[in-house]
Prior knowledge:
The chain has helices spanning 7-28, 34-40; strands spanning 4-5, 43-51, 57-62, 71-74, 78-82, 94-100, 103-109, 115-116, 122-124.
Amino acid sequence: MTLQVTQAAITEILRxxxxxxxxxxxxxxxxxxxxxxxxxxxxxxxxxxxxGGCAEQRYQLNFNHGLPGSQAVDCGVVALSISQDAWPHVQxxxxxxxxxxxxxxxxxxNPQLPDTCNCGQSFxxxxxxxxxx
Length: 133
């Protein structure tokens, strides 16, 4: 099994990117639109682990360009860049976006990380796996 990104997650990543670009354009009064910028090439998103959350580590998704040595995953209109440290731990990850009565959120289903919090956003690496701490 390999890393998977659902269509719902891709759609939400694009929406967030377009929102961010619109805010940047409004501040700079740039006439170009976020759709034009996103339409010409894949939107670059960075997926990484950072300290925090209920179980010591949490996922972080942002629009920084990939770090040197990052692993790139082509998802069509979205290209995910994943740090070298996180890459071995996301091989079986499914990234989804769901909306429910509490609002919308990304969901990270990762069978490689057995010690996860019920919130679905936080996890603990086992001591033998932890190169991120």
